[in-house]
Amino acid sequence: MQVSIKTPEEIEKMRVAGRLAAEVLELLDEHIKPGITTEDINRICHDHIVNVQKAIPAPLNYKGFPKSVCTSVNHVICHGIPTEKKVLKEGDIINVDVTVIKDEYHGDTSKMWIVGKPKPGSERLINITQECLYKGIELVKPGTRLGDIGHAIQQHAEKHRYSVVRDYCGHGIGKVFHEEPQVMHYGKPGTGMELQEGMTFTIEPMINQGKYQTKLLPDGWTVVTKDHKLSAQWEHTILCTADGYEVLTKRSEEPF
Ligand code: MF3
Ligand code: CO
Ligand code: CO
């Protein structure tokens, strides 16, 4: 499969889907506190997407995934399954990953929260991981190569003695949830595919406090750090424009 270049009509639909996904994350700010379960978070997101946005939560039944969002707590890297058994407590860190389908197009985004009072070590991991995402985004423009983006992310993470997860990556996105190209969060400058105007893809670095190795739990979805140290992730859906980028899943708290 070739990388798809989106038409202006498709880009407008991607903007709508992206905005809806971002709104779901904004809605969660007031809810994430000690005592909430990851199933509560799932229900809040599901109900808002289906009843208010009249959209579809893409993860639900995707390759058999049983819930509407992914909730990844502490040493869970990604694809955590919401459950009423997981009660968030003071000091936990959590990623909620939301993907909505509106008018056939996908918007995919995630962010991190610290539950209750911030812990310095966790806050640093979360902030550096967000900086990794932003450093990748800032390079997006026609002519940049995917290896440039991966390299910038890897440099920033490793400078702070964190590691970059290798087993999962960003992806092209549009009518299809995960399409070409694969967007690695590590790499060599000057290598890989050249970006072109009209490409839409995610950047979603997963950065670990310890080593980068992953382990898949027997539920077939939950990915954890092999050394059980903390992991953080932030994700945006990006459009490559004629002279740079547009963050399709931008939240109002963000600069861009
Ligand atoms: N939203 C995830 C991503 O960023 C994919 C989740 S697939 C699921 O690509 F099935 F786990 F939900
Ligand atoms: Co994604
Ligand atoms: Co996602």
Automatic annotation (TrEMBL):
Residues 12-242 form the Peptidase M24 domain. It catalyses: Release of N-terminal amino acids, preferentially methionine, from peptides and arylamides. Coiled coil: none annotated. GO terms for molecular function: initiator methionyl aminopeptidase activity. It comes from the Bacteria. Its EC number is 3.4.11.18. A divalent metal cation 1 binds at D97, D108, E235. SUPFAM superfamilies: Creatinase/aminopeptidase (SSF55920). Transmembrane segments: none annotated. The keyword Hydrolase applies. Keywords: Aminopeptidase, Hydrolase, Metal-binding, Protease. Binds 2 divalent metal cations per subunit. Has a high-affinity and a low affinity metal-binding site. The true nature of the physiological cofactor is under debate. The enzyme is active with cobalt, zinc, manganese or divalent iron ions. Most likely, methionine aminopeptidases function as mononuclear Fe(2+)-metalloproteases under physiological conditions, and the catalytically relevant metal-binding site has been assigned to the histidine-containing high-affinity site. Substrate binds at H79, H178. A divalent metal cation 2 binds at D108, H171, E204, E235. Monomer. This is Methionine aminopeptidase.
